[in-house]
Design brief:
3 strands, globular, three-stranded antiparallel beta sheet
Length: 179
Amino acid sequence: MSWIINNKVLWRIGILLLWLVAFSGPWGFDTIYVPGEYTCSDPWIRYTEQFCAATISGSEGLAILGRDFFTMIRSWSQGETMITSLSYLVLFIVIVFFLLAPVYNSLLSLFAGDRRRPTALNALVWLPTLIFCLLTGFLSILFPSPLLWGLWVMAAVAGAAVFMEWRSLAVIPKPQPAG
């Protein structure tokens, strides 16, 4: 238990490095229609009988979402508003929050020392990321593939971060009331 407190900076840096590995790993597929009688060429693999697919990393997926986000903003400025674009805006903000907020918070908490509030906040910020990755992973079971390891590594990293932050929170002494 004292190892968790004594090496808090070390394991937080380790979690951030694993986050980078997970975010650069495959999270989804880009599919194209290719009839079954034709072969898929590299980097495309046979996904279903009628489709080939290439993996998309988390960072590529976020870049695609960001590009589409700015395209949507441009269409709004030209007077084209649709309810689907509003839902896309909300989806983009939620995904960016769930994936990037824990990193920013972890970087800030590297300098927080052994205080309870930043540790509890860091655990609470990693928890929605864990839930988001698990839900996304279980939804991807509709088309299961061991090639989507980046998503599952991110879920493991978020789970490890929540566990380590809660364990370190249990060791940090509670402040005594004044009086």
